[in-house]
Write a structure and sequence with these properties.
Elements: H1 2-16, E1 25-26, E2 29-30, H2 31-49, H3 53-63, H4 69-90, H5 96-108, H6 112-125, H7 130-142, H8 146-159, H9 162-168, H10 180-186
Antiparallel strand pairs: 1-2
Helix pairs in contact: 2-3, 2-4, 3-4, 5-6, 5-7, 6-7, 7-8
Length: 191
């Protein structure tokens, strides 16, 4: 009887011990699932690099709910990039003015590089597009590139003198008001 009680005690004690986990927990995700998530993340990033934005977006959307904390923000950033790129590739402009309006919308949203690329594209097709030079001057002013601002604004004024008057009251050139070269460009009649 004593032997039977000892055996039951051992069985009971063994059942109370926790079985070792096959995976180590880290941040709420197992190491195995984190490794798989990182592999999925890397595959999705490769799709972005290959300009396969629709497939990359789908991969990031699938990954996001189970993604480890360390990559959640990066997934969201890539998703936003994919959406913007898909929007951009789907756009069809009939006139350079429509392309300019799109560039201005990008500028107003803070996408300076995209706006500048669109304006440069306009100039590639229409080298006399004074408004594209003006837009580039605005971007250069906002982003602190004084010489680029002066060069682009000078070209815009050369192509259309009305740009000088517009620049005088344009708040987007606020960063340039203390530069004497800017003043000379806007007010050449003042000695």
């Amino acid at each position: 009887m004593a032997e039977l009680m000892m055996q039951e005690a051992r069985t009971s004690a063994a059942s109370r011990k926790k079985a070792p986990s096959l995976t180590t927990k880290s941040g709420g995700h197992s190491a195995a699932s984190s490794s798989a998530a990182f592999q999925q993340y890397q595959a999705a990033v490769q799709l972005v690099q290959q300009a396969k934005y629709d497939r990359a977006l789908a991969a990031f959307e699938k990954l996001l709910p189970s993604a480890p904390f360390e990559i959640v923000e990066r997934c969201r950033m890539y998703m936003q990039t994919c959406r913007r790129q898909m929007e951009k590739t789907g756009l069809k402009f009939l006139t350079p003015e429509e392309r300019f309006d799109y560039a201005v919308s990008q500028l107003n949203s803070g996408y300076f590089e995209e706006a500048a690329n669109e304006l440069k594209s306009i100039l590639g097709d229409y080298p006399q597009a004074d408004y594209a030079y003006y837009g580039l001057a605005v971007i250069d002013s906002i982003t602190g590139r004084a010489q680029g601002c002066l060069d682009n604004l000078a070209k815009a004024i050369e192509l259309n003198a009305k740009n000088r008057l517009q620049a005088r009251s344009d708040n987007d050139f606020q960063n340039m008001v203390d530069d004497p070269r800017f003043t000379e460009l806007l007010y050449p009649e003042i000695p």
